[in-house]
Amino acid sequence: PPAVMQAMQRPMIYHRGATFRGFFKGLLKQLERVHQTEGSVLVLPGTGSAGWEIALVNTLSPGDQVLAVVAGDFGERWARVAERFGLRVSRVEVPWGRAATIEVVRPALEANPDVKAVLYTYNETSTGVANPLPEVGELVRQHGGLLLVDGVSAVAGMPLEMDSWGVDLIFSGSQKAWMCPPGLVIVGVGPRAWAAGERAGFPRAFWDLREYREQAGTGDMPSTAPLTLLYALQAACDLIEAEGLEQVFARHRALAELVRTGAIRLGYRLLADPAFASPTVTALLPPDGLEADTVVQELRARHGIEVNGGQGRLRGKILRVGHMGWVHEPELHRLLAALEDVTGALRGKR
């Protein structure tokens, strides 16, 4: 957004001074409101993927058993990170495009009563599925384990009530619905996660959330603050709060419906179960006879529009349209017109 771009032009200030401290404390309060939490929300330099490691090393110990709910490529990658850290990973494999519901998670918890944490992806970017976090949060809380959530493409674009839903830790990336350049990982931490952190046995240095919490108390960061990105994030929070959280979420739902309806009219099919289709990203199967990657390439070549293809098992099979953050109807109408043009042209070549 222009306001975010403008904020990034602000001059540098001393990152240990009173001006920065006042600014940073205010930003953290804004982030707490978006997360709907009385707990801590911290900002670290890094990308959303850093959140996988941050969540694990700050709450667990080598050899702990975790339940990884794998419903797409990002859930798969988080499970692999957990395995590399020496955790005992039990996987719940969900068909890609289906949702990780309590009907899937409950039997796995019952079969693995010693699970210390559940690794759960709120919005699976690779499949366009929004998983039912509130009901799974209640289930995990009843079990007694921690609920660690990848919210990279969800937070600030989809409802989040961190405290009432029983989310112990959730992380997101500045480049998604936060409307900023990449480079910040935003981490919400609840009291049960802090308590687990006191027992956690993994070595921690740069990703030690205890240091970030201690420094945040005085409006500081443990290392040099990425000022330009923090200015951007504050401007984005201002925009979100000015629009209103409920209106932000309603806009994302409306834009998702616009994309889905328009694409289906052109012969594309949703990969996701419609009941769990994401408000922030749509994954589309192309019409019979068309190659997804060719559609992606032609949108770029003919119209200068970037959409993405599939990841992991879905590489070459789908295209994905992001409609999160600073996106409005005119851009998506242009996309759908371009998609109609490309689809017609490719069908004519058959």
UniProtKB/TrEMBL annotation:
The keyword Transferase applies. Pfam families: Aminotran_5. InterPro entries: Aminotrans_V_dom (IPR000192), PyrdxlP-dep_Trfase (IPR015424), PyrdxlP-dep_Trfase_major (IPR015421), PyrdxlP-dep_Trfase_small (IPR015422), SP_NH2Trfase/AEP_transaminase (IPR024169). The modification N6-(pyridoxal phosphate)lysine is found at residue 176. Its cofactor is pyridoxal 5'-phosphate. This is Alanine--glyoxylate aminotransferase family protein. One of its GO terms (molecular function) is alanine-glyoxylate transaminase activity. Residues 36-311 form the Aminotransferase class V domain. Substrate binds at residue 320. Coiled coil: none annotated. GO terms for biological process: glycine biosynthetic process, by transamination of glyoxylate. Belongs to the class-V pyridoxal-phosphate-dependent aminotransferase family. Keywords: Aminotransferase, Pyridoxal phosphate, Transferase.
